Amino acid sequence: MKKITLYEYGRTQGIETLSTELGIPKERLIKTVQEMNVVLKSKLSLDNPFKLSDNTIRAQGLAGIISYKGIEIEIVPKFLQPESDDWREDFYFLSNMSKYGDSMGKVSSQVSNNKSLFDLIGNEFIMGYLKNHRNIIRKYNKKKYEDFIIHGTLEAETILMPSEQGFSQTTINLTKKNQYNAVILGAALILKSLVSNITIKVKLQKVIDELSPQDIYKLPIAPLPIRHRKWESVYELSRDILKLKGNKFGSGQNTVLGYTVNTWRTWEKFVSSLVSNSFPNQEVLNQHEYSLGIRKPAIEPVKVKPDSVLLWNTKNGATKIVVDAKYKNTSSRVDLKISEADIYQSLAFATALNSNVIFLIYPHFDSSNDESTRIFERIKIKNVNIVGVGVNVKGISNKNNRVTIYKEFSKNIKILIRALLR
Q1: CB-based burial of residue 12 (10 Å sphere; 0-12 exposed, 13-18 middle, 19+ buried)?
Q2: Using CA atoms, how far apart are residues 324 and 286, in angstroms rounded to an integer?
Q3: Phi-psi category of 9—alpha, beta or left, where left has phi over 0 and alpha has psi -120 to 50?
Q4: 94 within 8 A of 266, measured Cβ to Cβ
Q5: Chain Cα centroid distance, residue 344
Q6: Rounded to an integer, what distance in angstroms lies between the CA atom of residue 21 and that of residue 32?
Q7: Angle formed by the axes of helices 117-132 and 87-100, to 10°?
């Protein structure tokens, strides 16, 4: 399958160049991208994630990998370096962590050096499946049938007058044929059609053989019961894979397939997790609403909702420190700058929470600087301190790197908070 790589909110890329790279006419590429936009809008509520303008294309608001009509588009998120060998592992970790927390964010050590995001996801799917396949999800199914050989519970009225087929009876069987395994099977079929690694393809076929046959899964896909929580990582990954697919088994070139995430929400969730992990001894409030004023004549409250509020313990009690994730910034990921809109929002936070310390956390990377946390700008307006912080998440899928990122963030922020509250 032919593949191109786009960089979210990065430089635009020429349609002519990409069509030559793919070996297809320019008109076909434009039509294919337009059709992808329609599907992504209906399935993921994303408005034109592929922006077409002046014979160029640019990705915005999503990252991951999409396959459609023989074309594969890999989108590198703004918060990661496409030049890095392990950006796919970091992306997969952050996308999982944003949905399920740190415990489900980890990436298998056997997935290193993948050159395809589909191969990485396929391998993770297999590792999760093999971990639990001896305790496959089973469900009791009731079956009514007629037979002269008695296996089940007889219906009383047929004992004296059986039909030509036999006695009417009911059996209850514990079977692997159920809606949960149907979802996992559906994802395995899609992944098998998309991965390029032969070993992964063979292992996915074994999963398919073990789970078949199944009825077609039903939409909307039901959540997994708590009693089967061992299967949560595989099942949730399967749901993510199927969300673009619809309600048919198998795969086809004319179906949009893939694994995508809403990037600004992923960054927002990561920042909340970063604050909680960096300050385990402080109380952190995530996504709480605060009243800013009243809207008249309707008499409706005007509210603000920062991503996180860190309750910093002082001798005079807890002081509110606002931490808000910023993503859609037009400045460079290296030369960051706090926008006027972000300044105005920070002042609204300060007023609503009676806080004079606001931290704005932006994605940042600089190949010439190994620091994961960088204070790039400080603004003071009367008694309100607005601090721009760049965070580099390169290598976060590695546990040791992750601990370093948390420690460095905690150290830098602690020093600044103490200085500002002095």
Answers
A1: middle
A2: 10
A3: left
A4: yes
A5: 29
A6: 15
A7: 50
- Number of C-alpha atoms within 13 angstroms, CB side, residue 16? 2
All residues at 6 or more sequence positions from 326 whose CB lies less than 8 Å from its CB, including other chains: 342, 360, 361, 362
* pLDDT, one tens digit for every residue, the chain (422 residues): 688 999 998 888 999 999 999 999 999 999 999 999 998 888 778 888 999 988 999 999 899 999 988 899 999 998 888 777 788 999 999 988 887 766 545 565 444 455 688 999 999 999 999 999 999 999 888 888 888 888 888 888 778 888 888 989 888 888 899 999 999 999 999 999 999 999 999 999 999 999 999 988 877 788 899 999 899 989 999 998 888 765 444 445 567 788 988 899 999 999 999 999 999 999 999 999 999 999 888 789 999 999 999 999 888 889 999 999 998 655 555 567 899 999 999 999 999 999 999 999 999 876 666 789 999 999 999 999 999 999 999 889 888 999 999 999 999 999 999 999 88
**Structure token pair of residue 59:** 């990705």
Radius of gyration over alpha carbons of the chain, in Å?
26
Cβ contact 163:146 at 8 Å: yes
DSSP 3-state assignment of 33? helix
CB 274 within 8 A of CB 408: no
> Do 289 and 151 touch, CB atoms closer than 8 A?
no
The pTM for the full model equals 0.82
Strands (DSSP E) contained in 82-206 are 139-147, 153-154, 167-175
**Measured at the alpha carbon of residue 172, what is the angle toward residues 171 and 178, in degrees to the nearest 5?**
130
| Both tokens assigned to 84 | 């890095």
Spatial contact of 66 and 258, defined as CB atoms under 8 Å apart: yes
